[in-house]
Amino acid sequence: MASQEDVRRIALLLPEAFQEERGFAFAVLNKGKRKGFAWVWNERIQPKKPRVPRPDVIALRVADEDEKEMLLAADAEKFFTEPHYNGFPAILVRLPAIDVEELTELITDAWRCLAPSALVEDFDARGEPNV
Questions:
Q1: Which of 6, 29, 49, 92 could form a disulfide with 2 if both were Cys (CB 3.0 to 4.6 A apart)?
Q2: CA geometry: angle at 116 spanning 21 and 55, to 5°?
């Protein structure tokens, strides 16, 4: 079972990753722009009311819609989506349903999707972070 603290620890092990100043979200700079790769899911509880952060669910970037569909088909207990994410390469992950090892792989892959290619190449040459 993973937690937000695991998400924070894993994300901040990645080169040049940082936690956004507001909210529970992690990003990396690419060509001077903030690229978010992991963030807390904000659920719409009531129509026309503000979304509410769900600390037990995070959104993670994925490479493309094919990877998203593969994850959704692999394990509905761990992964899901909502209409807000239709057409967007991100998956929602239930933290209580996932172990830290798999979470590490997913967060690292999310970071790889958005980090500068030279940074990813250097990271891959050095190896995975230890959790």
A1: 6
A2: 35
In terms of Cα–Cα distance, which of 34, 91, 35, 40 is closest to 62?
Answer: 91
Task: Answer for the pair 27, 20: CB distance below 8 angstroms, yes or no.
Answer: yes
CA–CA dist 111, 122 (Å, integer): 13
4-126, which class in CATH? Answer: alpha beta
d(CA 20, CA 111) in angstroms, rounded, equals 14
- The alpha-helical segments, DSSP class H, found in the chain are 4-13, 65-74, 100-114, 117-126
> Do the Cβ atoms of 62 and 90 come closer than 8 Å?
yes
- Nearest CA to 117 among 35, 39, 38, 60? 35
Encoded tokens for 2: 């993973």
Helix axes 4-13, 100-114, angle to 10 degrees: 50
Domain residue limits, the chain: 4-126
Cα 103 versus chain centre, distance: 9
In the chain (131 residues long), the average pLDDT of successive 10-residue segments reads: 96 96 95 97 91 96 97 96 95 97 97 96 80 49
